[in-house]
């Protein structure tokens, strides 16, 4: 396990977070647990938690207030059009990921963590950052209010 991962796990075990989000780029969607399929042969399958309705609400609260995520007229980042799914998806329904922070947080610390993919460009140019901030500012505030 990487040093920074071990440090994050230790921090989460000491402080009882209730809500968490990790920001990523390269897509416009909010994913929620579980991120790993139950079947080892399945590449994509819905794997809801017992708290699926809460995760869906949290994901929707972010995506619906983002300036682009649920806009049906926006361009699709790559091949998946998540606007049709209200800008949210169960992680394993999109792509399976073993050992994700979302799954760890839920299973081992009782923290409801989501992954927010906040823009199509994984590495936006510095001149684009003010607009990216405006696209996500209200969503971040609404998410924290939850």
From TrEMBL:
Residues 1-146 form the Peptidase M14 domain. Signal peptide: none annotated. Pfam families: Peptidase_M14 (PF00246). SUPFAM superfamilies: Zn-dependent exopeptidases. This is Peptidase M14 domain-containing protein. It comes from the Eukaryota. It comes from Cirrhinus mrigala. Belongs to the peptidase M14 family.
């Amino acid at each position: 396990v990487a040093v920074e991962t071990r440090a994050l796990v230790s921090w989460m075990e000491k402080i009882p977070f209730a809500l968490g989000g990790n920001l990523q780029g390269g897509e416009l969607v909010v994913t929620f647990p579980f991120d790993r399929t139950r079947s080892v042969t399945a590449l994509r399958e819905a794997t809801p938690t017992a708290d699926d309705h809460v995760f869906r609400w949290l994901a929707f609260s972010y995506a619906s207030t983002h300036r682009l995520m649920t806009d049906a007229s926006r361009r699709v980042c790559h091949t998946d059009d998540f606007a049709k799914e209200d800008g949210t998806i169960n992680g394993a329904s999109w792509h399976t990921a073993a050992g994700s922070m979302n799954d760890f947080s839920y299973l081992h610390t009782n923290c409801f963590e989501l992954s927010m993919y906040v823009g199509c460009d994984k590495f936006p140019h510095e001149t684009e950052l003010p607009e990216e901030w405006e696209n996500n500012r209200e969503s971040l505030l609404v998410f924290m209010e939850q």
